[in-house]
Amino acid sequence: MNPPNKTRIYLSPPDIGELERRYVQEAFDTNWIAPLGPNVDGFEQELAAYVGSGHAAALVSGTAALHLALRLCGVGPGDEVVVSSLTFVASAAPVVQLGASCTFIDAERDSWNLDPALVAELFEARAREGRLPRALIVVHLYGQSADIDPLVELCDRYGVALIEDAAEALGATYKGKSPGSFGRAGIFSFNGNKIITSSGGGMLVSDDAELIAHARKLATQARDPAPHYEHTELGYNYRMSNVVAGIGRGQLATLDQKVAARRANFAHYVEGLGDLPGIAFQPEAAWGTHSRWLTCLTVDAEAFGNDREAIRLALEAENIEARPVWKPMHMQPVFQEAPMVGGAVSEDLFERGLCLPSGSSLSQADRERIIAIVRGCAR
Ligand SMILES: *Cc1c(COP(=O)(O)O)cnc(C)c1O
Questions:
Q1: What is the model's pLDDT at position 228?
Q2: For residue 322, what pLDDT is reported?
Q3: Which residue puts its alpha carbon closest to atom 8 of ligand 1?
Q4: Which end of the chain, N or C, is less surrounded by CB atoms within 10 Å?
Q5: Given 204, 228, 252, which residue is the final one in a domain?
Q6: Ligand 1 in contact with 165 (CB < 6 A)?
Q7: Is there a contact between 137 and 82 (Cβ–Cβ < 8 Å)?
Q8: Separation of alpha carbons 236 and 64, rounded Å
Q9: N-term to C-term CA, the chain
Q10: Distance 223 CA to ligand 1 centre (A)
Q11: Over the stretch 249-271, which tens digit does the pLDDT of each residue have?
Q12: Looking at the structure, do residues 261 and 326 belong to the same domain, yes or no?
């Protein structure tokens, strides 16, 4: 039934081409094996152009990019930062690492992203108390943009810095533009499981040239311009290497094909599973294009005849990786003291949500296997 050598199907494995090899080879051939060089410059320019941001800094990870974004927006000890609860821990950890604290906000059903109505309520309440949050981190989940316009308006009105965690949303659109390009700063990730990978890396983007110049300085141990080592502030070692940037450049060149492949996965899942009672896919909001980085669905156990976990375990038994939807931050033991606004939607999505294998190299045979196993779990 389950030969142990059956090749594992991963949730979202890397999908690497020839161009990546060429850029990396070039780095070796020209001895640019350093955290600067033509691939870093090229990757920054090409990504900034793709997402429509003025400037970009290539960094060691998306988490490092978020850490710098927060610091450059003035977040420090005692500050409050408002964060989407339904996300990966990296959206919130840098807030705490800067000595600030998180207040979490629930998702809305139409996109599974931050609910702007709840943000409005919180900002109003905070304005009345006379202590506004320093920043808002909006996460664009699973390849879908949050509803950005009302958030930009709220942040402008109350003087709160808008930071976009677009780690999962490269290739998505909001009203024709890329998420990550609307806020004071935006971040992307090129971790191994993202829609494109550099084997690990991240990018900070902003229209503010000074912010990005300062980010580059902080990312290289905050060296002041001097022939010796001079420091008027402290930084980090966060710059991306020129070898890694070569992989990223090659990947970025095929991003549109990767979005198309992931959207095709989604279409096949809908065709193969959409008729089953109790199965509902993450909706595509009217404001933009979902990249379908991951195809996610919810399971109504009563209608379907089995719960989310039964499906996940049936897939795992066949050496297929599927994952529950993110466990919300307000449910995490490490954040049990953090204030939370709402919560019912993200708790329900965690309880019933499942992410299916969604890689851009997923074959038709793989998809058919997965669909057959899920169908086998139905009543
Ligand atoms: C992957 C991810 C990050 C972190 O990116 P790294 O490059 O792995 O540090 C941050 N936020 C979200 C929502 C992510 O999915």
A1: 96
A2: 98
A3: 191
A4: N
A5: 252
A6: yes
A7: yes
A8: 9
A9: 21
A10: 27
A11: 999 999 999 999 999 999 999 99
A12: yes
